[in-house]
Amino acid sequence: MVSQKNASADNEGPSAHEFEIRVTPTSATPDSSAIEPTQADQALQQTFIVRLESNLLWQPFSIDYRLLVNNELVNEGKRTSKDIERQVPVVQVSTPQKMSLLGIASFGIKLLKSAKVIKVILAGASLAAYSWLFSFQFAVALIACLMVHEYGHIRAMKYFGMKTKGIYIIPFLGGLALSDDKINTRWQDVTISIMGPVFGLLLSLLLMVVYWITGNIFFAGLANFNALINLINLLPILPLDGGHILKSIGFSVNGKFGLLALVLGSAIGIFGSYTLGLSFLAFFMLIGTVEIAMEWKLRHQSHLLPLDRYGQIFSTIWYFVTVGALVAIMWYFAKSGDQILSAPMQILRS
Predict the structure, then answer these.
(1) Structurally, how many domains does the chain consist of?
(2) In Å, what is the CA distance from 173 to each residue of 103, 201, 204, 213, 240?
(3) Are residues 196 and 172 in the same domain?
(4) Whether residue 106 sits in one domain with residue 48
(5) Contact of 153 with 192, CB cutoff 8 Å
(6) H or E element in which residue 270 lies
(7) Which pLDDT tens digit goes with each residue over 320-338?
(8) Residue 134: CB partners within 8 Å, gap ≥ 6?
(9) In this structure, are residues 129 and 171 in contact, taking their beta carbons and an 8 Å threshold?
(10) Are strands 46-57 and 13-23 parallel, antiparallel or unpaired?
(11) Are residues 209 and 271 in the same domain?
């Protein structure tokens, strides 16, 4: 290694590094490695002029490079965000980790994940716990909903070529989709995080159709509560899916404008939720905004490649459309007048 320059928004544009390498043969013997080169050796000295040229575009990310030796092209190439997504991080930047019940559970599972039987044990414990709280039938259906949600995360991981370790259902905490591979970009973080709720949304829509066909209120209740579970996962609080999504969007915008846009967007969401009477949603959006804003200064410590402008806009629309669709499902069932079907919307209004 003779030179290293960090790829960042501050180092955009063309740059070049030029240096000389002088190769001087010596008369040194294996027993006398420190002998100075003779005049004859110096006459055979070779000088190589090495020049590395690069041009960095930060958003959308791309870097072109050319390596020349004595003005002859030796190597050239280009890397984009697609290449970064497929690579294994070489150096992981250490960032402060907050302890949480979900984090502790994840750590515990990683210690035991070599034993496949742990999946069965956790699923059995979850089934027993939810059967005790509700009923056996509803517990089975609830675990199925959690599996669909986590499968959405798994599918996104596989799309990016990541090796997955499977799904773990944890009593009272939901589920976890685990992978040994690390992500390299904010786009991967957004996609993997949001695909769980998206699969959950599709399941609720499917259950609604089954309810319309059969008239069985069980499917209506399952569609409604499944929408609530996935909506809670989209709250902008870490380590929930929504926290990862909004953090990746906000931290991808350069300068203080990113923080301002994040706070302004959250303020609009909080005001809109409160105006619609969704106090629960408004309260946790406020908590999540404060939490993410407090981590703003740590954004440069991450190795993750940020979203480009298109990715920021698309991710924001994707997030709010998913949230709106889940709320709409709950609103639809709340208008039925049934006390049970109105419960999820009452939770949002509490």
Answers:
(1) 3
(2) 11, 19, 20, 33, 11
(3) no
(4) no
(5) yes
(6) helix 255-275
(7) 899 999 989 988 988 877 7
(8) 142
(9) yes
(10) antiparallel
(11) yes
Q: What is the rounded CA–CA span in Å between residue 190 and residue 283?
A: 23
Residue ending a domain, among 141, 159, 182, is 182
pTM above 0.85, yes or no: no
pLDDT digits (tens, 9 = 90+) for 294-328: 655 655 556 778 888 788 889 889 998 999 999 89
CB 298 within 8 A of CB 95: yes
Could you read off the pLDDT of 65-110 as tens digits, one per residue? Answer: 899 998 898 899 888 877 777 666 655 545 445 545 555 555 555 5
Token pair 């909004």 is at which residue? 246
How far is 301 from 95, CA to CA, in rounded Å? Answer: 7
pLDDT score at 113 = 47
Residue with the two structure tokens 């599918």: 155
Whose tokens are 């034993």? That residue is: 115
- Distance (Å, whole) CA 305 – CA 312: 12
Q: What is the pLDDT of residues 46-72, one digit of tens each?
A: 888 898 888 988 777 888 889 999 889
Sheet holding 72-80, edge to edge: 13-23, 46-57, 62-69, 72-80
Statement to judge: residues 230 and 244 lie in one domain: yes
| Tokens 């939490």 belong to residue | 291
Q: Does residue 1 lie in a domain region?
A: no
The span from the CA of 110 to the CA of 96, in Å, is 19
Reported as type and span, the H/E element at residue 179 is strand 174-179
